[in-house]
Amino acid sequence: MRIGYAPWGETLGELVDAAVRAERAGADTLWVSELHRSATVTAAAVAARTERARIGTAVALAFARSPLVTALEALDLDELSGGRLVLGLGSGVRRLIEDWHGQPFEGPVGRMRDTVEIIRLVVASAHTGEPLLHEGARRSLRMRGYRRPEPVRTRIPVHLAAVGPAMTALAGEIADGWISHELGSPRYLAERIAPGLAAAGRTPEIVVSACCSIDPDPAAARRAAAGTVGFYASVRTYADFFAFHGFAGEHAAVGAAFRAGLPPDVPEEMAAALTLSGDPEEVAEGVRAYAGTASSIKLAPPVHGLEPERTRRAQDRIIDLIGAL
After folding, report:
1. Per-residue pLDDT reduced to its tens digit, 231-245
2. What start and end residues bound the annotated signal peptide (predicted)?
3. Entry pTM
């Protein structure tokens, strides 16, 4: 199983330094997110300072950019990294895409299908000078008279983030990989996700993302991870996920507190069940529990509700764990 890491930093320089340290420790893939920063710009900064590890976006927002811009950025990143890019794409949620980015969200599964097809077309053929034409139900491309230099690769891996069954099925059908959000469990992966991915008869890479909190005091580790659990629990979209793990009531309570402007109360057992949190031995065992079902694991430090120094300590402990693993 591949061991990957999502580096954190208050500054871009600090984030890149963490990526370099994680690569030296043995991280196979360095994953960068898109919320406070641009995923593609951050990926470029990490690619320029690293040598071996894959560079993955986990995730770039597929609907906030045109498919052409995404494809061109992917080609540039693949060139900059020497063929190390994994293009991870996500739909985001309606409020994020419509209110923050001013883009339509209707028909996300069909929109994602068109997006991936256009990206693959551009990556494969933009250097040939041939017309680039795609007529999709949600997104289209009509380009003539365009040519760019030959790329490092004419096929860049495209991974899709998915939570619901329809987007998960699409990932199994067309993507090179599937990426989870930062909460999960081996049982959820085996019972809910893996069957949906396998339905198309393909074997995409399965990337489990895990909020990882390590402390000699397991209770302290879980308190640090609780903010990330609360962040996801504030989103109605994840109701089925929490119900599967027996936390339907807690999910509703956290959501109500969030909407009332109150701090969420996340029980320790909720953080223990949905994150990799505890002392180093517990967390290492949690990582190993995914072997045989996941292809890769992406470890990320907790950030929600924490002072930067606490996230720094968490980051250092994860990088130490990667070296040990």
Report:
1. 999 888 889 999 999
2. none
3. 0.96
